[in-house]
Specification:
The protein is built from one helix and seven strands; from the N terminus they run αβββββββ. The chain is of the alpha+beta class. The longest helix is centred in the first third of the chain and has 22 residues. The N and C termini lie far apart (about 75 Å).
């Protein structure tokens, strides 16, 4: 039995599926290699959020400086000092498809939270609750 037509059919079927998925959903068929997360540290007030919107997402610490550290599997991925935008968020760009621990420290306290860049996880991180240092 000649399997070549079956293999050709399978390859064409998969290629057409990816192409149609791109046309219908408007998304690339391969996952991105980087993910942007939007971080809103807070001490008193936050809001639930899943997908960040720069127009409607507002946080309580606009134009505020923070130190942050990102760790994955015990390895330091990045460490920096940044300031939030006028909406109270700062952005970090990480490799997609990973879990991390984010530590944020500012004048109002410190917080460590789990974050993820897997598809289907939130990119708007509003649960970074700053606790005063003891």
């Amino acid at each position: 039995m000649n399997r070549r037509p079956l293999i050709v059919f399978a390859v064409v079927f998969i290629a057409v599926g990816y192409f149609l998925g791109y046309l219908i959903l408007g998304v690339p068929s391969t996952p991105p290699t980087k993910a942007t997360l939007y971080i809103a540290p807070y001490s008193t007030t936050t809001h639930p959020c899943f997908t960040h919107n720069k127009e409607s997402c507002k946080a309580e610490n606009p134009n505020t400086q923070f130190k942050y550290k990102v760790v994955s599997n015990g390895e330091l991925v990045m460490e920096d000092t940044t300031s939030t935008d006028k909406n109270g968020f700062f952005e970090i760009v990480l490799d997609s498809g990973s879990f991390y621990w984010l530590t944020v420290e500012g004048d109002k306290g410190i917080s460590s939270v789990p974050i993820s860049t897997h598809i289907g996880y939130a990119d708007c991180i509003t649960y970074v609750h700053l606790q005063s240092r003891k």
